């Protein structure tokens, strides 16, 4: 099940290794827009963790995701269910301007100020 999430980068986590086999996971938190904004964690795994390199809070992004569910049974025989949102592609929609630097604006009009 593939979906897209649009919003701004809220947080980019560090790469973590889980388990003894070196499974890599990195979390991107995206904050959506609208009347009821949501803060959504998206997991990037294995070779996809590098897709988050260079992202900065405030950047507008579109994240392509897959919803994944799994069943697990513990040693007591209890069945547990888990849900995760896995990211597989990220597109940066715009860059965050540096503090004190204006956003790039295309303006071909000559400056007609008298000073």
How is this fold's topology laid out?
Layout: E1 2-12, E2 16-18, E3 23-31, E4 39-45, E5 60-73, E6 79-94
Antiparallel strand pairs: 1-3, 1-5, 2-3, 3-4, 5-6
Biggest sheet details: 6 strands, antiparallel
The pLDDT mean sits at 87
CATH topology group: OB fold (Dihydrolipoamide Acetyltransferase, E2P)
Proportion of β residues? over 45%
Separate helix tally: 0
Fraction of residues in H or I helices: under 10%
Rg, alpha carbons:
20 Å
**What oligomeric state is this?**
single chain
Summarize the helix and strand pattern as letters.
EEEEEE
Uncertain spans, ≥5 residues at pLDDT below 50?
103-109
The H-level CATH homologous superfamily, spelled out, is Nucleic acid-binding proteins
| CATH architecture field | Beta Barrel
Number of domains: 1
Write down the overall geometry. globular
Helices and strands: which structural class? mainly beta
CATH class: Mainly Beta
**How many strand segments?**
6
**Terminal Cα separation, in Å?**
60 Å
Name the features:
115 residues, OB fold (Dihydrolipoamide Acetyltransferase, E2P), mainly beta
Describe this structure in words.
Mean pLDDT is about 85; it is low at about 105-110. The protein has strands at about 1-10, 15-20, 25-30, 40-45, 60-75, 80-95. It has about 120 residues and is an all-beta fold. Strands 1, 2, 3, 4, 5 and 6 form a 6-stranded antiparallel sheet that branches. The protein has a single domain (about 1-95), classed as Nucleic acid-binding proteins (OB fold (Dihydrolipoamide Acetyltransferase, E2P), Beta Barrel). Helix content is about 0%, strand content about 50%. It is built from no helices and 6 strands. The radius of gyration is 20 Å and the shape is globular.
């Amino acid at each position: 099940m593939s979906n897209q999430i649009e919003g701004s980068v809220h947080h980019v986590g560090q790469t973590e290794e889980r388990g003894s086999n070196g499974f890599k996971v990195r979390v991107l938190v995206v904050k959506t827009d609208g009347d009821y904004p949501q803060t959504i964690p998206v997991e990037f795994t294995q070779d996809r963790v590098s897709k988050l390199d260079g992202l900065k809070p405030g950047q507008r992004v579109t994240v392509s995701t897959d919803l994944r569910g799994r069943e697990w049974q513990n040693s007591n025989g209890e069945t547990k269910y888990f849900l995760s949102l896995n990211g597989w592609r990220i597109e940066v929609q715009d860059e965050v301007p540096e503090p004190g630097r204006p956003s790039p604006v295309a303006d071909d009009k000559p400056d007609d100020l008298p000073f």
